[in-house]
Amino acid sequence: MTLSTGAVFALGIFAAFWLLAGLWAVGRGVAMQRRSAFVAGQTGRLAGLLEASPYLPVVVRSDWRIEASDRLGRWLGLGPGPRSFDELRGQDAGLDAEGHEALRQAIIGAQRGARPFTLSLRPLGGTRTIVVHGAAAPQNVAGPGSVLLWLSDATDGEQALARARGERDEALAAFEALSGLIEAAPFPMWFRDTELRLALVNRAYVRAVEATSANAVIDEGVELCESVAGVSATDTAEEARESGVTQTRTIPVTIEGERRIMRVVDVPLSPNDGHVIGIAGYAIDIQELESERGAHRRFADAQRELLDRLSAAVAQFGPDQGLIFANQPFRRLFSLEADKIAEAPPFARLLDVWRDIGRTPEVRDFPEWRQAHVDWFARAEASEEDWLLRDGTHLRVVAQPTPDGGLLLIAEDRTEQVQLASTRDTLLRVRTATFDNLFEAIAVFAPDGRLHLWNQRFRRLWGIDEGTLAAHPRVDTLMGELADRLAKPNQVSVVQEVIRAATLERTQRRGDIRFADGHHFDFASIPLPDGNALLIMLDVTDSRRMESALRERNEALVVADEVKTAFLSRMSYELRTPLTSIGGFGEMLQAGYAGKLSDQQQEYIAAIMDSVEVLSRHIDNVLDLAQGEAGTLVVERATVDLPALLDKALASARPLADAEQIELVGNLSDALGTIEGDAPRLSRLVAGLLDNAIRYTAPERREGGRVLLHADGDERGVDIIVSDNGPGLPDAVGAITRGTQAGTATGGIGLALARQLVDAHGGAMEVITEKGQGTMVRISLPRRG
After folding, report:
1. 634-782 matches 185-285 in CATH topology
2. Which pLDDT does position 777 carry in this prediction?
3. I need a labelling partner for 82 at 20 to 30 A (CA). Which of 154, 356, 481, 765 fits?
4. How many CB atoms sit inside 10 A of residue 35's CB?
5. What is the pTM of this model?
6. Are 737 and 658 within 8 A, CB to CB?
7. pLDDT recorded at residue 732
8. What are phi and psi of 561, to 5 degrees?
9. 8 A C-beta contact, residue 59 and residue 148
10. Which of 397-401, 475-479, 764-768, 778-782 has the lowest mean pLDDT?
11. In what order do the strands lie in the sheet with 313-317?
């Protein structure tokens, strides 16, 4: 079949149309494929962004189906992503019933009223905090009735917020506490702003300036510290701000109308950048501190003055180990000169010097010894040593570290103590041997009544074997076994009672017993310091036999003593009569009644009058001594001015002291006052003591002899002390102690008369003397007899 040309043309056009349509379709498909790939890529990127976002989108449709990623299940502790709203509730995970219902009601509210909401939920079994922001979903996204939820994990944020809140609360509390502390501070405190104006003051500041309130102080700019030497408080604050360094000054300040010494401190406040934002200040009252410092200085001066008077050698070293003080005994002991102390030599150098002059003990390694002693400064407790020097001197050295890092060194010469200790040990051994060989029977009983010690005389007297005594029997058991040895067995209870009184009552008792063999014994129990009791038994059989003879002899001696006393009294009166005549005629000659005398005659008359005065005083002394021994010495009672009496005694004794080249020193206290007594006899008493002291010091010490009259008193009485550095009067003191009279060569009559006069005035006299060391006589007299 042959097609026409038009048909062929139409067929060609149709084929071309279909070809063009196919090409357009292919191109359209390729474009759509490319767009689909682009959309898929964009969707993947958006999904990745959503997955990386801290927010999780969740769509809740009107039928309560859920569209969300698997992160929702992980956040809620559920399995793979839930697909319905009810799946969000679980037993051990997901939302609890309360949270699930609250979310449901919020979604319903958003569906009905398109109201957005925000909830904070905490899933079960976890520590997450999920914040839910919800609102109605756009129509073109999820359809009508859908709700779009945005969930965010606020766990870290909540914790950080909680920490921030806690830190804020702590900071606020600290600020409040600091503000309360500043406000309650007992001393003024203030703060200045950048313009150096007062911006804050506490109550103590307000009280100090006597203002009505803190606001009034700030408004009026009332300054606590006034200008001193042209420097005001703001000037000091300005200096602190400019230098950035705390400024401290000590100035007088008027506090509540009272002038006080204050330490004022201005502190620049600046953050880390170094910019000063203000000046804080405070003022501390140091008035008491300054007063205490002054008192401390005065105490230190008084302490050093006291140390200078001690017999012990004392030295003080500072924190730098330099010598800052040494008293007189220390200077003498270690041969230190005053200018040497002024140089403050170090302790180590002094040890070297002392070694050279023999003032340190001999040691094998001196450098090591010296370093060990230098280490005294670093110790926390005192050190004590005994030093034996080359010349035989024994020193007890105590080193006490001081709180300031220094050292207090005390050295005491114990040479005499060591010698005395050696002598004491010897005496103890002698006493032990003597105790066991005494003629008296001696036994010592413990406080519980048991026999503690005994000597052989005690064992032989009672006829007891050594084994019985070694068992230390009680006194009642022991005396019970010995009762048959007495003439009267019941007297054994007397011995027991005497021992009991000494051990329990601490009283001394005496008694006497007679043995069956006719022997008589006196016994006594003496309480001992350690609580024991000493029983002493003495055989007085022969004494009893001689007692009657001795009594007769004693009566004869009493009669003879009365005759002697009467003779002394009579002789004193007999001697006084011609002596009075001699003195009267001598005064007449001196007055020129017999004509004018030459110079030599005047000297003779003066010597006669001096002798008359001395002899008259001796007669008065003998008469007083005789009356005292006879018990008839009577003293007058009148007011005696002691300073005048003692001054007169010193004046009377001074010519003799000057003639004998003896230094006579008087040390009379202002508290002497007056007493009631016999002024003439007291004057003779003091004059006699001074005369004795001068006369018995002169032969021994022609150079360096010294006699001191010291007197002091209080409201009860006075003490008069006469001391010398002469040869001592041990024989005279022994005679006075034994109640006998010593010869005039020893001064015994003077001491005996002095004791009688002191006793007559109701006082007491003490004589301390040592051969070669001098004598001291102390007289204590009451204010009123």
Report:
1. no
2. 92
3. 154
4. 10
5. 0.31
6. no
7. 58
8. -65, -40
9. yes
10. 475-479
11. 323-326, 313-317, 407-413, 394-401, 383-388
CATH class of 53-153: alpha beta
Angstrom distance (rounded) from CA 205 to CA 203: 5
Question: How confident is the model over 629-665, as pLDDT tens digits?
Answer: 666 566 778 888 989 888 988 888 888 888 888 888 9
CB burial string 41-50: b at 16+ within 10 A, e below: eeeeeeeeee
Residue 748 binned pLDDT confidence (cut-offs 50, 70, 90): very low
Say what the pLDDT of residue 743 is: 37
Q: What angle do CA 519, 520, 524 make, to 5 degrees?
A: 140
User: pLDDT value at position 708?
Assistant: 92
CA 506 to chain centre: 38
Region 387-394: mean pLDDT is: 87
CATH code given to domain 185-285: 3.30.450.20
Nearest to 202 by CA among 225, 233, 181, 177: 181
Token pair of 325 as six digits: 């003080």
Orientation angle between helical segments 679-697 and 599-630, nearest 10 degrees: 110
CA torsion 36→38→42→48, rounded to 10°? 90
Check if the beta carbon of residue 149 is closer than 8 Å to that of residue 117.
Answer: no
Distances (CA, A) of 142 to 119, 134, 139, 162: 22, 14, 6, 37
Does residue 690 contact residue 711 with C-beta atoms inside 8 Å? no
The pLDDT confidence band at residue 435, using thresholds 50, 70 and 90, is confident
> Mean pLDDT for the chain?
78
Identify the burial level of 133 via C-beta atoms within 10 angstroms of its C-beta, where 0-12 means exposed, 13-18 middle and 19 or more buried: middle
Give the helix/strand (H/E) hosting 770.
strand 764-770
What fold, for 292-419? Beta-Lactamase (3.30.450)
- The class level of CATH for 438-539 reads alpha beta
Mean pLDDT of 558-578: 65
- Which 3 state secondary structure label does DSSP give 765? strand
Strand-strand pairing, 706-713 and 663-668: parallel
Q: Where are the domains of the chain?
A: 17-51, 53-153, 185-285, 292-419, 438-539, 634-782
- Listed residue (401, 407, 394, 411) closest to 328, CA to CA: 411
Measured CA to CA, the distance from residue 714 to residue 432 in angstroms comes to: 46
- Give CA–CA dist 335/317, Å, rounded: 17
